[in-house]
Amino acid sequence: MEPDQFKFMIEPLGASTESAIGVIGLNHYGNLGYQLDPSAWGNGFATEALRGYLPALFTNFPKLEEVKSLVIEGNSASRRVLEKCGFVVDNQLPPVT
């Protein structure tokens, strides 16, 4: 298994199996991504999912040294989720290839 295959659905605790509200995982470039249904925004689900995801990711892939994520300009809520989970802001964009 590769880290980019380590993807999960996000569901509220105690929810039925068909109540996914989002997804979380790494893409094939190694960047973290998560997406929630807008009805779930502002309830702490992204932060909780990320706090559970990161330890599991590093446990399952001990050679993985870092995880990066990009935030769309102006998406302060997503930026705050990442900061609460220990990500450091780097405003330098990588070169376009």
Map the helices and strands:
Layout lengths: L7 E3 L11 E5 L4 E6 L8 H16 L7 E2 L6 H9 L13
Parallel strand pairs: 3-4
Antiparallel strand pairs: 1-2, 2-3
What would you say this structure looks like, in words?
This protein is an alpha+beta fold and 97 residues long. Helices cover 26% and strands 16% of the residues. It has 2 helices and 4 strands, in the order βββαβα. The chain has a 4-stranded mixed sheet with strand order 1-2-3-4, with helices on one face. Helix 1 links the parallel strand 3 (31-36) and strand 4. The mean pLDDT is 88.
Descriptive labels:
alpha+beta, four-stranded mixed beta sheet, 4 strands, 16% strand
Summarize the structure.
The chain is of the alpha+beta class and 97 residues long.
How many helix segments? Answer: 2
Give the radius of gyration.
Answer: 14 Å
**How many angstroms does the end-to-end distance come to?**
27 Å
What string, H for helix and E for strand, traces the elements in order? EEEHEH
Oligomer classification: single chain
Strand content: 15-25%
